User: What shape does this take?
Amino acid sequence: MSFRDLIDDIDDVIFDTLGDSALIEGRAEPVLGMFSAPWKAPQFGKVQTAIREPRFEIRVKDSDGLSRGLRVTVDVPALDGGGDYDLLQLEPNGNGLVALILRKRP
Assistant: This one.
């Protein structure tokens, strides 16, 4: 068994157990991933640091056919940032995951 196969098996368990679910436009089934909505980075005194965009990290194998502009509906409570987003870009990180960079839909 290759290292990538082993990591894929581990990812299956982690994503099935701890993952968030999102429906991506054009997909019949929800995709599991890790959602984060860091609306603001930490503040130091009165100086505010940069605002970061929400992201949904998925496995590379789940990213085939995704492109800018697709609707991504994240299934977490609204107070945690759930709802409808536009996909702005895909950022692969080289370790088998791809971050979907999102923008909240009005």
